[in-house]
């Protein structure tokens, strides 16, 4: 049975692969974007997840077209790297607000619908950096680590209503950005990955779709690494 699925930041990269996976499974898929539109077959809703009013309007639009959101994938996020001593407060705050604050805003709005439905799936896209840290990424790593505590708190709050909340932590994924890396940097990265390759975005999407499936109905509060063994489960 087709479900109403919302993927934030689902117009490119990992988010797009996730949105396409749900679309291929027959779900009604909406994606948020900040002006670039949506791929064919999906409903695009313009939304900056740092703006509560835009989040509310986006959900209203999705619900009018597809019904109450049954699956939320909180994927939208940004990076703004810099070493700690050079990182300004606004630089730190902006990344945390987009990545963690944005997840809070969309999850809060989705939860109201899921509670009425007495079922739902939330999946938060974190990063392997959340658990390992990364030089020059204190803001990004903090925001992505925060998603784990956030999701596990929701798992405890909402579980009695058959609502699950889980986290996926991708490692290095083939994207436009990684394709542009110098060959020596690629080799340096791959030397850390037991499977000796980058992930395809579709491999991350497969884990997300499983967590949102009936087969994963008894999985909540989990952190699922899709990192080629980079973090060895941590």
From TrEMBL:
Domain Ketoreductase: start-end pairs: 3-171
Keyword terms: Oxidoreductase
The keyword Oxidoreductase belongs to this UniProt entry's keyword annotation: yes
Example GO molecular function: oxidoreductase activity, acting on the CH-OH group of donors, NAD or NADP as acceptor
InterPro entries membership: KR_dom (IPR057326), NAD(P)-bd_dom_sf (IPR036291), Sc_DH/Rdtase_CS (IPR020904), SDR_fam (IPR002347)
SUPFAM superfamilies in the record: NAD(P)-binding Rossmann-fold domains
One Pfam family in the UniProt entry: adh_short_C2
Family, as annotated: Belongs to the short-chain dehydrogenases/reductases (SDR) family.
PANTHER family reported in the protein's UniProt record: 3-OXOACYL-[ACYL-CARRIER-PROTEIN] REDUCTASE, SHORT-CHAIN DEHYDROGENASES/REDUCTASES FAMILY MEMBER
Protein name: Beta-ketoacyl-ACP reductase
Native source species: Actinopolyspora mortivallis
């Amino acid at each position: 049975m087709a479900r109403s699925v919302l993927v934030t930041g689902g117009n490119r990269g990992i988010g797009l692969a996730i949105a396409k996976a749900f679309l291929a499974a027959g779900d009604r898929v909406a994606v948020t974007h900040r002006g670039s539109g949506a791929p064919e077959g999906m409903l695009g809703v313009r939304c900056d997840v740092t703006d509560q009013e835009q989040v509310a309007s986006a959900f209203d639009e999705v619900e009018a077209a597809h019904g109450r959101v049954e699956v939320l994938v909180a994927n939208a996020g940004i990076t703004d790297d810099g070493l700690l001593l050079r990182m300004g407060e606004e630089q730190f705050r902006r990344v945390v607000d987009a990545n963690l604050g944005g997840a809070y805003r969309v999850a809060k709005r989705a939860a109201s619908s899921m509670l009425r439905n007495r079922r739902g799936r939330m999946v938060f896209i974190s990063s392997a950096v959340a658990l390992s840290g990364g030089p020059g990424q204190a803001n990004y790593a903090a925001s992505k680590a925060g998603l784990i505590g956030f999701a596990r708190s929701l798992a405890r709050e909402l579980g009695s209503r058959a609502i699950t909340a889980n986290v996926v932590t991708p490692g290095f994924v083939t994207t436009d950005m990684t394709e542009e890396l110098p060959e020596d940097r690629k080799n340096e990265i791959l030397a850390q990955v037991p499977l000796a390759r980058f992930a395809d975005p579709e491999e991350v999407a497969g884990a997300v779709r499983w967590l949102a499936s009936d087969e994963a109905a008894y999985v909540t509060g989990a952190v699922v690494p899709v990192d080629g063994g980079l973090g060895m489960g941590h």
